[in-house]
Amino acid sequence: MKRLEGKVALITGAGSGFGLGIAETFAREGARVAIVDINEAAARAAAEGIGAAAIGLAADVSKASDVNRAVAATLAAFGKLDIVVNNAGISHRNRPMLEVEEDEFDRVFAVNVKSIYLFAKAAVPLMQSQGRGVIINVGSTAGLRPRPGLTWYNSTKGAVHTMTKSMAVELAPQRIRVCALAPVAGETPLLATFMGEDTPEKRALFVNSIPLGRFSTPQDIANAALYLASDEASMITGVVLEVDGGRCI
Ligand SMILES: NC(=O)c1ccc[n+]([C@@H]2O[C@H](COP(=O)([O-])OP(=O)(O)OC[C@H]3O[C@@H](n4cnc5c(N)ncnc54)[C@H](O)[C@@H]3O)[C@@H](O)[C@H]2O)c1
After folding, report:
1. Residue ranges per domain, the chain?
2. What is residue 228's predicted lDDT score, i.e. its pLDDT?
3. CATH number of the structural domain 8-243
4. What is the mean pLDDT of residues 210-214?
5. Using a 6 Å cutoff on CB, does residue 183 contact ligand 1?
6. N or C: which end of the chain has fewer CB within 10 A?
7. Residues 6+ apart with CB under 8 A from 91
8. Per-residue pLDDT tens for 232-249?
9. Cβ distance 181 to 241 under 8 Å?
10. CB 191 within 8 A of CB 215
11. pLDDT digits (tens, 9 = 90+) for 92-110
């Protein structure tokens, strides 16, 4: 039996990186998946790569109208919604905190934090009527063990972790589980933004801070998301699961 047989999942930012890995893994394990991304071409290409079990949807997760449209399109295609993965995220480039301008600060908070509020407004009522549901928020080791140069990004991930725990206790009576993942630096297009500059020296500096000695991969993150989304984790809610090779110890 596949681990997500019969489930419907909506995954944001799934045109690239961790989100794409999560979408491919969920589909392989029997789920039908809605791939939501601001990059429409990437969303469509990802869905085509997966095949009939996937649809690609263009949406900016920081805009209520886009979020509502994405949830409605998922329902129209698949008839229900069991799992939402709030994965879409951005960062300001690694640099001193005072050099980040207000509009960039606002944008990072809107994409990384407000999106979770918007998806809760759109999807939780559905999950409440279904009597079950799972929400997985992608946080970061940056929210657990912040380092200089990413102060405002780190703060968004702290908010993601607190939202996760608070949503988990509030929604538990309705059998809606809410969990977070805290990945360590991963091999995705975002990595260069986190490092500030993509040089062999910077890469070595980052990798050397990870006890298991390598960056995370989309498959590492997808494996953890798969477990939390599946019924195997039916007694688990409110956790912030580090997928970090020991980075936060
Ligand atoms: N890569 C890392 O080192 C790392 C580490 C810890 C946490 N994370 C988190 O993992 C998540 C995924 O990051 P990734 O590394 O896969 O990055 P990525 O850049 O490869 O993928 C992010 C995707 O989100 C999409 N996106 C950006 N803004 C959007 C918006 N407003 N609406 C909809 N889609 C939007 C992008 O188009 C892209 O396809 C993010 O939340 C990130 O903060 C990444």
Report:
1. 8-243
2. 98
3. 3.40.50.720
4. 98
5. yes
6. N
7. 108, 150, 153, 190, 193, 194
8. 999 999 999 999 999 999
9. yes
10. yes
11. 999 999 999 999 999 999 9
